[in-house]
Every structure is written in structure tokens, then in C-alpha cells.
């Protein structure tokens, strides 16, 4: 029986997972996940959750997002558990919350996969992440929403999509897990209405996408 306890992957194990993701080697990645699950006697989901770079905090989903790997991302989603819906605002069960959500995992700069996909203008991946339950209201260490990163990188299509997605959530303002009034103000500030909200952004606080691409 596979253990649900997080394994202590070696540096080489993690490097293999992240490398095969970055270069979009789907078959090699899935083979590696299978082999590691057998090696550590745990689930494939647990391997994905443990495959985090210890220094950067980046996951396989960060690299899928950064590089626009819209074909690989759904395959990884199939390995992860379905998000558990809340009932009457109740918190998820202990079993459902035993693994942190890889989709919303923040790296060392506080950025989620959605931040990276938005910054790079990877619209198909942004859509996949939102549809899979990515939280667009998470702010990185610079205090920026994913939408803000798209705005300041001049990724108009991503900004427009997130504005529309965010507007639907704002309609439910006040419920558990919904945006705060401050977030709504951020959206209003970032909406394209003449002056760019990112015009005066401090370049030194930009999201760092170190080695996000193949190579």
C-alpha cells in the first residue's frame, strides 16, 4: 500500500522532475514519477507535491506555467486530487487538506504558477489554471496579484481574461475565500482605462523567473 507521507526526495530526484518538465519531455517525466513512486512506496501525487526546488521553491507547475506547456499541464492535473468544494463555508476535511495545493503553491518570491503564466502572457495556461481552481487573489512578496504582473508586462489578453474572471468572483464578495475590498480596488486600478496601473511599478520588485525556460 502506497504511503501518503511525503518522501525525502534527493536533489537528483527533484532535478529530474523539474528538468523533464522544463524541456517538455512528457514521457520521461511520467516515467520518472512512476519510478519514484515505486522507489519511495508512495503515490504519484505525493511525488509531485514533494518535487519542489529547495532554494527557489519552484514546482513542476511553475515551469509548466512559465513555458506555456498547455499540453503537459492537464496531465499533471490528472495526478493531483480534485479540489474539494467547501460546504456552507466549512473548511475542507483533514484528508482533503493534508496536501498543500500545488496549483496555488508560492515559491521563494511568493509567486504562484498563475503569477508566472500571467507574467509571460501564457493565456492558454492561465485559463487552465483558473479552471482548475487557481486563486487569482494571492499576492507575491512584492504585493502583486497575477493580474498586476500581466499588466506591467503588457500582456493585454491575459489582463482582460483575469479582469473578466475576477469580476465574476467580485460579484460574490463577502463569502469565504473571495477577494477582499482591497483586492477589488486593485482590480479597478488595473483595469485598462487610460493610464496603466503598472506605469510606476518599481522594476526592482519584479517577479524573478530564474531559469524558467529550457536549458
From TrEMBL:
Presence of the UniProt keyword rRNA-binding in the record: no
Cited InterPro entries: Ankyrin_rpt, Ankyrin_rpt-contain_sf
Residue ranges of ANK repeats: 109-141
Compositional bias ranges of the Low complexity kind: 190-200
Region span, Disordered: 169-215
SMART domains linked: ANK
A Pfam entry, by short name: Ank_2
Transmembrane segments: none
Name of the protein in its database record: Uncharacterized protein
The species this protein was found in: Cryoendolithus antarcticus
